[in-house]
Amino acid sequence: MLAPAELTRVFRARGLKVTPQRQLLFTLLHDNETHPTVEALFATASKMMPGISLRTVYQTLNDLAAMGELQMVQSAGGSTRFDPNVTEHHHAQCDRCGELHDVYVDDLDRLRVRNLDGFQTERARIVFSGLCAACLSKTTRTQKQSNKRSITKPSSNKGANK
Amino acid sequence: MLAPAELTRVFRARGLKVTPQRQLLFTLLHDNETHPTVEALFATASKMMPGISLRTVYQTLNDLAAMGELQMVQSAGGSTRFDPNVTEHHHAQCDRCGELHDVYVDDLDRLRVRNLDGFQTERARIVFSGLCAACLSKTTRTQKQSNKRSITKPSSNKGANK
DNA sequence: GGCTAATTTGCAAGCGGTGCAGATTAGGTG
DNA sequence: CACCTAATCTGCACCGCTTGCAAATTAGCC
């Protein structure tokens, strides 16, 4: 997502008004890596601007998404989250705390895909799941990690599972 | 998902009843690769068993999902779809018709993931997007395909984009 | 300062999904 | 085979998220 100042320019150039509500949301979203839900944004926005309408938050988020400045993400569990990172990236979602983490994969074209059946792939979105660093350290503190394998760092007995 | 006859055994073994409604859904789902929505299943089921309740369809699908016989999939656009294929697989969703297609990827562990930041990946789900064979042929019939690149079959000028 | 179209707001309503309670029924038992 | 009971089905009310609508407000141009 563009910085607030630039978004202001873009909005004005399109004949859209830059209201205080929108400016607030611009700043709340800029560089925000928490993948917030509408409710989370509304809660934060309400503290800084009491009386702001939930409807306005929805409206602005939808507008930004339509302009390509924001990505809507359906996280596991069904909740809708907003991601101001619109560069090519993927997500890692923690099975325990549910947090989404941005990750980058650059050798996507190395994947061998079977059963494509004529489908022409143009884009791929990967969602990794597992445990985030924070939850992982809590786990290892209490119970010894068994022979968990990371799918991105194959163990020596390659292909032994299943 | 197991075949209807086996599901019947499993249900009875768990003290669950095998009602006509459930049997119908077992057969509608078995080997079903259309990734149906609840509404689609309800529509089909209603034709074969008029009066069946939408509530029952939801109930049975949830039960099967909880038993691991069915996978719930949030397709792009937000609709919830059900997938009786519970083997390790991924999806390709057509940008035009929205259909989901099952695909298989076996060299996932070759991916180099940046910014993992201590996250321990255990599973990955990939959703490819692009055009399915059917929509692709409709397109090429009307307008010449420009220099579209498939991300799974890198073109010669590798790494030239972005 | 004034004008006008864009925006905000509150509320009603739509949609997908679930809780509940009464009616029904699968399937074990004698 | 009739009976019994817990599981299930059904219909309806309701919930959470999201959008439509219309009146009140306001950004931004003149």
Total domain units of chain A: 2
Helix content of chain A: 25-40%
How far apart lie the N and C ends of chain A? Answer: 42 Å
Uncertain segments of chain A are 153-162
Mean pLDDT score of chain A: 90
CATH superfamily of the largest domain in chain A: Winged helix-like DNA-binding domain superfamily/Winged helix DNA-binding domain
Structural class by secondary-structure content of chain A: alpha+beta
Structure annotation, total helices of chain A: 5
Pattern of helices and strands of chain A: HHHHEEEEEEH
Radius of gyration of chain A using CA atoms only: 20 Å
How much β-strand is present in the residues of chain A?
A: 15-25%
Largest sheet of chain A: 3 strands, mixed
How would you sum up the global shape of chain A? globular
Question: Within the largest sheet of chain A, what's the order of strands?
Answer: 4-3-6
Question: Can you tell me about this structure?
Answer:
The structure is a homodimer of 162-residue chains. Chain A has 162 residues and is α+β, with helices and mostly antiparallel strands. Chain A has two domains: 4-74, Orthogonal Bundle (Arc Repressor Mutant, subunit A); 87-142, 2-Layer Sandwich (Dna Ligase, domain 1). In chain A, 33% of the residues lie in helices and 20% in strands. Chain A has five helices and six strands. In chain A, the strands form two sheets. In chain A, strands 4-3-6 form a three-stranded mixed beta sheet. In chain A, strands 1-2 form a two-stranded antiparallel sheet. In chain A, strand 3 and strand 4 form a beta hairpin. In chain A, helix 2 (20-29) crosses helix 3 (38-48) and helix 3 (38-48) packs across helix 4 (54-66). The radius of gyration of chain A is 20 Å and the shape is globular. At the A-B interface, strand 3, strand 4, strand 5 and strand 6 of A face strand 3, strand 4, strand 5 and strand 6 of B. Strand 6 of chain A pairs antiparallel with strand 6 of chain B, so a sheet runs across the interface. The structure holds a DNA duplex (30 and 30 nucleotides).
